[in-house]
Specification:
Blueprint: H1 2-58, E1 61-62, E2 70-71, H2 75-82, H3 85-118, H4 122-137, H5 139-150, H6 158-165, H7 182-192, H8 197-207, H9 211-220, H10 225-236, H11 238-253, H12 257-263, H13 276-286, H14 290-314
Antiparallel strand pairs: 1-2
Length: about 325
């Protein structure tokens, strides 16, 4: 009993010290800082921290959305990695192929498009930037209208009509229902719509690079544009490159609706376009296994955090 009393007294003493330090910090002129940070901290806690913690807790349970969750420990993760054949044989390979091509491909494409626009005068640059950025804002509508018309499986489809008229095929190809073509079309559409805020961030960084650095670099021995990009441009916009990389990672790995939207079915034909987000929807919405869906969400979160840390080290500032 005496040990318990001592521990309680120690805890009270530590709490008082923390309270006194916080009060002293506020009295030092930081009340305005707390006032302005409070809404952000509150919203971040409510919409980010609490949902993530709940997902972690639910991932350790069996929960069907009706009965009270039953604690199962790491059973969901063990099942996911050892018994879920669809996840290991189809979902993971599909997600990796999609992420490896669309992620770096979209990232490199956004950089070079931004670099080319930075060479233009303001008026044409603004017009071209709007044209390139607009698909990322209207991708949902465009996928449903534009791309489904282009890849329609009948003779009215633009691609089928062109190939038939050119005598390259004898009958219409079911592009969006074929397991052999769906992933390729998903990648094309994703690259087309990947020029989002990361592209704008890189463009803004390029426009703010100190022009004197280029003149000094040519004096020091740089002889072409490629060396200029490697030794001056990229080191000068590391923060924007990091932001663009993180946004590309998040957008690519968390993609899922594109295959369902194009094919019109979930799961996609023969699971050819199933990504990890589709598998989460499968468990959470179609099967009502919310514990498994939460476990998959935690895995997805850890993958994103790992890639974010990796790129943070690559683009770490030397300042």
């Amino acid at each position: 009993m005496s040990t318990l009393v001592k521990s309680m007294q120690s805890a009270r003493s530590k709490f008082r010290k923390m309270k006194d330090r916080f009060t002293l910090w506020l009295d030092s002129g930081n009340k305005t800082t707390v006032l302005f940070l409070a809404p952000y901290v509150l919203m971040f806690t409510v919409f980010i921290v609490i949902p993530v913690l709940l997902a972690i807790v639910l991932s350790l349970t069996y929960f069907n959305g009706i009965q009270f969750p039953t604690f199962t420990g790491l059973a969901n993760y063990v099942y996911l990695l050892t018994a879920d054949d669809l996840f290991m044989r189809t979902i993971v390979p599909n997600t990796l192929v999609f992420a490896i091509i669309v992620g770096p491909g979209g990232y490199i494409l956004s950089f070079f498009l931004a670099w080319m626009l930075s060479q233009l005068s303001p008026k044409p640059r603004n017009i071209m930037a709007l044209i390139i950025y607009s698909p990322s804002m209207t991708s949902g509508v465009a996928i449903a209208v534009l791309w489904k018309i282009i890849f329609s499986g009948d003779e009215a489809g633009f691609l089928n009509g062109f190939l038939l008229n050119a005598n390259l095929i004898n009958e219409p190809v079911q592009w969006l229902q074929s397991p052999d073509h769906l992933m390729m079309i998903m990648i094309i559409v994703s690259l087309w719509s990947s020029m989002g805020v990361g592209f704008l961030a890189v463009l803004a960084g390029l426009l703010n690079v100190n022009k004197d650095l280029y003149e000094a670099a040519y004096v020091d021995g740089i002889r072409n544009r490629f060396q200029e990009i490697i030794y001056i441009t990229i080191p000068s916009i590391k923060k924007q490159m990091l932001f663009s990389a993180v946004m590309s990672i998040v957008g690519t790995i968390s993609a899922g609706s594109i295959g369902v939207t194009l094919s019109g079915a979930n799961p996609t034909p023969q699971n050819a376009g199933q990504l990890i987000l589709n598998h989460i929807e499968d468990y959470g919405i179609l099967r009502s296994e919310l514990g498994m869906a939460a476990a998959l969400s935690v895995v997805l979160l850890l993958v994103m955090l790992g890639f974010s840390k990796f790129f943070s080290k690559i683009f770490a500032s030397d300042e």
